[in-house]
């Protein structure tokens, strides 16, 4: 994913090139969970219309199946921390790998709609686990001087996973003669799309056997000798291992296990800063970003674009997503969090508004649907610019803020509430889009535009700027 040369060594914290290369390998291996997170979240995009045809379902029931994974995500995210503290980070990764693999096979070979939904839930559990364990493990094995940049591997892996799933779907569709239900070796194209995830899922599991357990977990279970060995591998031989072990033990003793009760006390139940975190999470989803990643192929087909082209445009939006994420990673510490969020909100509002206007020119019903060339082009450009503005702002910055803005004493619990709010909002958008688009596609985008506009005063009035502040300064 990167090379040693791409990580400049901070002044006064020189590291040996081979030592840093080893750390990068460990981080990249752990970030495979993020890749699967992105891949599984997006792969369903290519199968939506085929599933609708195969099982002859309406938009509302189809939306429930697509969104079923989000139920599993909430379960996986809620339980992963405790599981990892009990059996270790590596074992938790291996469990997620098995769940990903089983989910991919089951989703590709469903007997009926109900068991497809069940396999989607199981895959969601794996996504939820990966979304928690990956960042935690990377933070615990990264040398302090490189922690920020190595932590960004997780987000980079997610957007790369989204792009690769779109590319694979596009390739499979071409092999099937541009028909999502076209047969390849006895199976329909959409089954191959869902089943191919077995390969990265197995790779994730294999890589987990090649990386060390977190030194923090090893110390927590009394395996001090093994912890020192890992610390030497990742931080170098010049580090005083006894001092580092003592630092970790002291930090663990001082940690306050925040609870839901700690979040209460504000005028409206939660503390004000907790409501800000919930607001960030909810706005991030209510602008409709996951419509692009879950339904973009269906979206473009619904306005008269042929399946092959619709898959191609889904892939290009994924590339734009990667570009925007890189921009955010480069400038979040330079420009600050609030300026990037404001740029993103303004850009998203304009893009979504243009898309809503363009979609209002959609004519026809069923498969006989079309749009004027000018409006069709504007819709495509608007969708791509929306993804770019989201990726360079809300896609990355929200997670940065959620990790920084809460006081130490409530950080873990507040993060959990904010993340839960994000999954709920994600579910609401995912479930509602097919019905909204059947009702009025332009109207759906007007709603997303409204949320993008409302996010601007929210940022200006309530979101704190955390650039340059230590975690201790947050209260």
At a glance:
The protein is built from 19 helices and six strands. It has helices spanning 17-30, 32-43, 48-55, 59-87, 89-108, 113-141, 147-175, 189-195, 198-208, 215-220, 224-235, 241-254, 272-286, 289-302, 307-335, 337-359, 373-391, 394-404, 411-462; strands at 183-184, 187-188, 264-266, 269-270, 363-365, 368-370. It starts with 16 loop residues before the first helix and ends in a 13-residue tail after the last helix.
Topology:
Elements: H1 17-30, H2 32-43, H3 48-55, H4 59-87, H5 89-108, H6 113-141, H7 147-175, E1 183-184, E2 187-188, H8 189-195, H9 198-208, H10 215-220, H11 224-235, H12 241-254, E3 264-266, E4 269-270, H13 272-286, H14 289-302, H15 307-335, H16 337-359, E5 363-365, E6 368-370, H17 373-391, H18 394-404, H19 411-462
Antiparallel strand pairs: 1-2, 3-4, 5-6
Notes on the protein architecture:
The chain has 475 residues and is mainly α. It folds into two domains: 16-211, Up-down Bundle (Growth Hormone, Chain: A), CATH 1.20.1250; 259-475, Up-down Bundle (Growth Hormone, Chain: A). It is 75% helix and 3% strand. The chain is built from 19 helices and six strands. The protein has helices spanning 17-30, 32-43, 48-55, 59-87, 89-108, 113-141, 147-175, 189-195, 198-208, 215-220, 224-235, 241-254, 272-286, 289-302, 307-335, 337-359, 373-391, 394-404, 411-462; strands at 183-184, 187-188, 264-266, 269-270, 363-365, 368-370. The strands form three sheets. The protein has a two-stranded antiparallel ribbon. The chain has a two-stranded antiparallel sheet with strand order 3-4. It has a two-stranded antiparallel ribbon with strand order 5-6. A hairpin with a 2-residue loop joins strand 3 and strand 4. The relative contact order is 0.12.
């Amino acid at each position: 994913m990167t090379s040693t040369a791409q990580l400049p060594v901070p002044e006064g914290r020189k590291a040996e090139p081979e030592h840093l290369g080893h750390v990068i390998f460990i981080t990249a291996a752990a970030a495979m969970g993020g890749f699967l997170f992105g891949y599984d979240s997006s792969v369903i995009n290519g199968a939506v219309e085929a599933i609708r045809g195969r099982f002859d379902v309406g938009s509302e029931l189809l939306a429930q199946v697509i969104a079923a994974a989000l139920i599993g995500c909430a379960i996986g995210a809620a339980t992963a921390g405790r599981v990892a503290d009990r059996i270790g980070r590596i074992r938790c990764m291996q469990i997620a790998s098995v769940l990903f693999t089983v989910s991919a096979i089951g989703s590709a070979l469903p007997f009926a709609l109900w068991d497809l939904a069940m396999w989607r839930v199981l895959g969601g559990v794996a996504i939820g686990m990966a979304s928690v364990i990956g960042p935690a493990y990377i933070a615990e094995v990264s040398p302090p001087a490189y922690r920020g940049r190595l932590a960004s591997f997780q987000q980079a892996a997610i957007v790369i996973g989204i792009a690769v799933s779109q590319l694979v779907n596009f390739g499979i569709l071409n092999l099937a003669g541009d028909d999502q239900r076209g047969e390849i070796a006895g199976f329909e194209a959409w089954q191959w799309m869902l089943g191919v995830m077995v390969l990265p899922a197995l790779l994730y599991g294999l890589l987990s056997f090649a990386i060390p357990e977190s030194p923090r977990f090893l110390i927590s279970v009394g395996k001090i000798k093994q912890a020192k060995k890992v610390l030497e591998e990742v931080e170098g031989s010049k580090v005083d291992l006894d001092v580092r072990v003592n630092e970790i033990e002291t930090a663990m003793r001082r940690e306050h296990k925040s609870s839901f009760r700690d979040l209460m006390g504000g005028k409206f139940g939660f503390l004000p800063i907790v409501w800000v975190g919930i607001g960030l999470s909810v706005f991030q989803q209510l602008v409709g970003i996951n419509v692009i990643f879950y339904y973009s192929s269906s979206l473009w087909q619904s306005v008269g674009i042929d399946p092959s082209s619709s898959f191609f445009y889904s892939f290009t939006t994924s590339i734009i997503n990667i570009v925007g994420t890189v921009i955010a990673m480069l400038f979040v510490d330079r420009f600050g969090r609030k300026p990037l969020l404001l740029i993103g909100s303004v850009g998203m509002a304009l893009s979504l508004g243009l898309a809503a206007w363009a979609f209002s020119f959609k004519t026809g019903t069923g498969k006989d649907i079309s749009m004027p060339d000018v409006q069709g082009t504007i819709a495509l450009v608007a969708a791509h610019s929306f993804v770019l503005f989201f990726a360079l702002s809300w896609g990355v910055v929200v997670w940065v803020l959620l990790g920084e803005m809460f006081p130490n004493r409530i950080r873990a619990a507040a993060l959990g509430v904010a993340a839960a709010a994000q999954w709920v909002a994600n579910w609401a958008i995912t479930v509602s889009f097919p019905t909204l688009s059947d009702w009025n596609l332009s109207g759906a985008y007007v709603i997303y535009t409204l949320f993008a506009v409302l996010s601007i005063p929210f940022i200006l009035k309530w979101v704190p700027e955390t650039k340059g502040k230590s975690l201790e300064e947050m209260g």
